[in-house]
Amino acid sequence: MSVVDSDVSFKQFGVSFQKMILQALLSDFSWAQQMMEVVKSDYFEQKHLKYLFEIYSKYYTTYKTFPSIPLLATMARDDLREGNDEVMCAQVVTYLSSIKADSNANDLPYVKDRALNFCKNQALKEALEAAVDLTREERYEEIVGRIKQAITVGTPNTTGHDFFEDIDARFVKEDRSVVPTGIKQLDAREIMNGGLGKGELFCVMAPTSVGKSHMLVQLGANAMRAGKNVLHYTFELRENKVATRYDSNFTNISATDVPDEKELVSKKLGEMRSSLGRLIIKEYPTNTATIMTLKSHIEKIAITKNFRPDIIIVDYADIMRSTRQFDSLRHELKLVYEELRGLAMEMGIPVATASQTNRESTESDVGGLDKMSESFGKAMVCDVIISMSRKPMQKSKGLCNIFVAKNRLGKDGILFPAKIDTARSIIEILDHEIDLEEYQKTNDNDMKQLLRKKWDEVSNERAIELTSVEIGRGE
C-alpha cells in the first residue's frame, strides 16, 4: 500500500488559497527559495497557475534568481501567443494584474506557513514510501540518507553560488525596485543607481540644527511623488509638526505660514493627491521605541488601514531603544542600526534614518565617518551615508555641503555644494561637484577661499537669489 496519496495537490486548500500561494512565491524571494526544494507544479490544481509556476521555477533553475512580475508576464505572454493559447494568456494576464492590487497581502504569512508545511510533510511521506522499497532490498544506508534529506529540505539556506556552474546568474540584471531620493545627483547611476533598493539602510548624519530632519522629509516627499507609500516615524517632533513640513514641501508655502493657509494648502494637496503615494506619520516619545514597537505598528496599520510602506523613515535611530540593554552606549546603538537593517531586509524595502555627529564636526566643512558620534559600528551597518555640514556663513545664506561618506551602491567620497530651504524642507544639490582631492590639499585658509570661489561660481551661473531664501528655525 502506498504511503503517498496518488492525487497529492493543493486542492484541499481551495482555488483562492492556491492563488495566494503563487502570489507569495512571486513576492517573497527568500521564501520562494525555500519552496523550490519541496513544491511541485502538479500541486497546483488550475492549469494557468501550474503553467506560471513552471516557467517561474525554470527561470530560477537556469539563472539562480527569480524573475520580476513584469518579466514573468512578458515571458508568459510571448510563449503563449506563440502557441496560440489565447485563453491561457488571458487567465495569466488577469491573475498577474490582480497581484498588483495586493489585496491579500495581510493573509500571506499564514498562507506561506501552511503551504511550506504541506510541502515538507509531503517530502517526508515520499521518503518514507521510498524507504519501504529500500528495506526490501536491504539498502539501509540509503534509507538514512533519504530521511535526512527529507527533513532538511525547505530550510532557509542555499548551497551557495557555484562559480562555474552558475555563471548565467551573474549576468542577470537585478530588479532593485528602487525608491528614488528625488535628488538627481544622488540618484545618478554611478552613485545610487536610481535610489534606495530593497533591504538597504540609508543614513544622513550631521550636527544638530543643520538639517537632518528636513532631509528625511524631503526623501519622504520625493518618494511620495514617485507614487511610493511612506511610513515616517518621529521621536522628537510631534506628528503635526512633521506633517506641516510635508505640507510646506508639497505646496511651497513656508512652514510658518501653513497654519494660516488651510484652504490653500488643502486645495493644492487635493489637486496632487491622485499622483502621490500615501503617508502615515507616527510619533513615539524619545528613547521608548524599539524595533518590536515599529513591527507591531506596521502590522496594525496593515490590518486597520490596508497600508504597506515602500520606504520607512526613522527620525532618528540614535534615540531609539535596542531590544537588549548594554553597559556601553556604542554597543546598544550598533544593535539598533543592525535591527533597522534587519527590518529593511525582512520587509524587502529601504529604511532611511539620521545620526548625530560629534562635537568636532561642528567646525568641519566635510563630515567624514570619523565624525559619527558614539559608535563607528553604526557606519559599518549602513549601505549609504551622506553627511551635511554648514558653517555660520553658509547657514546665513541657506547653503550647505553634502558629502557622500559611504556608499555600497557606487562612488563615494564626493562633495557637493547645496542650498537648503528649512522653511520648506527642500534641499537642492547644485550642479557643481567640488574636487575633493584639491579640497583636501588645502589648509584652512585656502579651504575657505576655495569654497568661497566655488560658491561665487555657482551663484553667478545659477543666478541664485540668496536674499530671497527664507531660513527656517531649528532642524
Walk me through what this model shows.
With 475 residues, this protein is an alpha/beta fold. The chain has 2 domains: 161 residues; 285 residues, P-loop containing nucleotide triphosphate hydrolases (Rossmann fold). 46% of the residues lie in helices and 11% in strands. A 9-stranded mixed sheet has the order 3-2-4-5-1-6-7-8-9, sandwiched between helices. A hairpin with a 4-residue loop joins β8 and β9. The longest helix has 29 residues.
- Biggest sheet: strands, sense, closure? 9 strands, mixed
Please report the first level of CATH classification, the CATH class of the largest domain: Alpha Beta
Low-confidence runs: 1-6, 462-475
Q: Roughly how many Å apart are the termini?
A: 74 Å
Question: Any chance you could write out the topology, listing elements then pairs?
Answer:
Layout: H1 15-27, H2 29-35, H3 47-63, H4 69-82, H5 86-101, H6 108-136, H7 140-152, H8 184-187, E1 201-206, H9 212-225, E2 230-234, H10 239-251, H11 262-272, E3 279-283, H12 291-304, E4 311-315, H13 329-347, E5 351-356, H14 377-381, E6 384-389, H15 392-396, E7 399-407, E8 414-421, E9 426-429, H16 436-441, H17 444-462
Parallel strand pairs: 1-5, 1-6, 2-3, 2-4, 4-5
Antiparallel strand pairs: 6-7, 7-8, 8-9
Helix pairs in contact: 1-2, 1-3, 1-6, 3-5, 4-5, 6-7, 9-10
Summarize the structure.
With 475 residues, this protein is of the alpha/beta class. The protein is 46% helix and 11% strand. The model is unreliable at 1-6 and 462-475 (pLDDT under 50).
Features:
2 domains, Rossmann fold, disordered C terminus, 9-stranded mixed sheet, 475 residues, alpha/beta
